[in-house]
Each structure stands twice: as C-alpha cells, then as structure tokens.
Amino acid sequence: MKRGIIFFCPLILLFILTSFGNKASTVKVPETLKVKEPTKVLFPKNKTAITAAMVAPPFLGSSYIGFKEALAFKESQGDYFTTNTLGYLGKYQFGIGTLQLMGVYSATRFLNDPILQEKVFYTNMSRNKWILRRDIKRFVGKRIGGVEITESGMLAAAHLAGPGNVKKYLRSYGQVDVADEYGTNIAHYIRKFSGYDVSYVASKRNPKI
Fold it and tell me: What is the top-level taxon of the source organism (predicted)?
C-alpha cells in the first residue's frame, strides 16, 4: 500500500502542474496590448548623429557661476577628469606652470580633486583681476573691433592667453592679438564671455591655495 502511494504521488503532482499550465494558456490578451505591426527601431539602423549644435552648456544666467560654467564648457565641456592633447588639465584646462603659481604641485592630485580645481580657478581669477585692475578701469565700456570690452571678457581672455597678453591686446586696441594652440584668440574670448557679473571675484595680489 505504501509503495502504491509513493508511486502515484509524483503522477498526481505532475497532473496538477499540467492543469495549471493549461489554464494559463487559455488567458486572453487584451486587444490594447496586442502587437499588430512591427515596432520601429531607430538605433542602430538609423543612428542619431550628435552634433556640436545639439550640445549646449547649462544656462545659469550672467552670475559668476554662469560665467565659470560657460567658460568650463568651452574649455572641456565641464569634465573635471580630462587632459587635452597638449597636457592641459581638468575642467578649466590649467597648465602645470599656472598650477604651480597657485601653489599646486601635483598634477595627479589636481586632476582627481574637483574641489581643488574650483579653488584654483577662483584663485587664478583673483590673480588675473589684480594684474588687470588698471586696464579694467581704463577699458571697460570701450569698444575694440566693434566689441564692447567687459570685465568678464577680459578675465576669460586672461584665462586663455594670460593677463600680460590681454594687456597688450587692449593697449594696442586689438592690433596685438594672441591665439592658443588650437587657434582661439583673445578677441574671440572677449566677445564670447562679455557681460557676466564677476564682481564676486576679489582682486588679490599673488594669491595661493
């Protein structure tokens, strides 16, 4: 008797499971959930090309934050951890020489520390503002090459080419212009980054981190 029960138990269990399977197969799919035509897939057959025109920096207004983020986007698209083909580092693309002026002597530490990068950027802006303080008073509001000179444009250009070259550009009324290794010149930065409020940046002589 016990042997018969042991023999039939698996068969009974199998029958129960099969009956559940049959019931599940009879469930009707609602008409709204049925796929009646092929689904259109755009990728990878029709790849969407991302162009420079489709990418834009975040709009943060004309404040200091808006200024530095717009400048960072132009320099590195805001990437803290990038190094360009010429060895310039981080979100704001600093060279080793400038970092040393700010009191930073480890490129690895700098590249891996976003907070330090922000401090270096502000410190460098403070230094450039001090160096350009007389030229800011003299030239802001004037026009060179049809472009109004603003304090933010001057500081952006100093970040690109150094404050000394910005002085030469202004005092020659645009006759002496300097471009970086990629062909971007002072006049372009003065125009592109004009009109931001950079009063937040304090003018300091030889500031350090």
Answer: Bacteria
